[in-house]
User: What shape does this take?
Amino acid sequence: MIILVAGGPKDFIPDLKKFQLEYPNAKWCGVDAGTRLLIDNGIIPMVAIGDFDSVSEAEYERICSEIEIVQKLPSEKNQTDLEAALEFVCEKSVDEIMILGATGGRFDHGLSNIMITQRYMEDRIVTIKDKQNEIRMLKPGTYTFDKNDMNYFSLLPITETVEMVTLSGMKYPLKDAILIREESLGVSNEIIHSKGHISFAKGICLVVRSKD
Assistant: This one.
């Protein structure tokens, strides 16, 4: 696993030290100001990527002195720092990516960060997580999710429709249903057993798991 930490508001970012304990073999990547947060928590990432316009000159010098690979990007470019970081880590063999610090603050950045993950989901699990939400984009297939403290479970169509949707282990099961992007049928379900199961045959959707 690779964990990317972007420069979103600190209040939205989970406890990084708990993540370090939960995923002791994970590699870390700092994205712009997220790098500063990693260093402040005693985590030295394998790489730092960004234009670093959100850190001071002294903080950037500290980043360069403590991290072996620092990729400084131009401030005016055709992609966000997070997209550049995803491109970098996906050049390596990685089966799971967790993204922190990508929500909260500017809505356009948060929405863009979610949509970008569609490009990288084909061969790996890519999840965006904050203190209250866990977001993952899915292609057609069958998936199992463990029950956890994020009680609410929503399926949101990205394509116009998501077809042949079947849900089991849920408070509101479905059988071969169609989810339509302009409707809210898939919102606010709950896993009521130890595991919840999802399958669908056509379309792209987001799974959003949330605390109240």
Q: What stands out?
A: The mean pLDDT is 94. The domain at 141-210 is CATH 2.60.120.320 (Jelly Rolls). The first strand starts at residue 2 and ends at 5.
